[in-house]
Amino acid sequence: MAKDFNSPKIVDGYDEHIRKLIPGYEVIHQQVDAILQSVLKPNSHILIVGCGTGYELEYLLKRHPNWKFTAVDPSLTMLQKAQEQVELLGKSSQVTFVHGETSALPLENCFDAALSILVAHFIADDIKPAFFKDIYNRLKENAVLLTYDLMTCINPQQLQALRYLCLAQGLTEEQCQKMLERMAQDFFSLTTEGYIKLLQKSSFESVQSYAQVLTYQGLIAKK
Known about the structure:
Keywords: Transferase. The protein is α/β, with parallel strands linked by helices. Helix content is about 45%, strand content about 25%.
């Protein structure tokens, strides 16, 4: 059964659990930040699609006092948790929170970058083209999109390796089994090649990989 991201219990334990579930979770955000710094100006406006509990927001807000953010999430429980974290930082003036999908935003080319980190593998395949097109349509010319998602596993050995890696990070055997079951049943993953083609069909250009850990891969694309 797919996780209910509106459940307060799941949301409260999300930050601790995801560090065991996603190899190199914190390194991903370090990489994303480094890439953003290399391409953005100090006063840039960044769209965060599926902001979750707000870890990436918190990470970036602490480092970039002049960046503005629009954070979108369909889960009100997640969004409220992220908003609480930002308020604790005293950074609310830098963030606009939107409950819903990217399509709920005004159709304006106002963002210098967009982040979709660990989001698209939850989006059904028939909706993915519209999901990425909605992001594309709200980016300025030459803006970048950074994604990071679970890819379809071609080699079963990678799944075994992922299991051992997650065990080393603190997941129990039972949690690892549930993880593998969810990957097969609840995720809408693509092959890397299929993902790149989807971004290109959504009008993105210069699609390249910037990170990979076993079955997880990060891609950067340009409008």
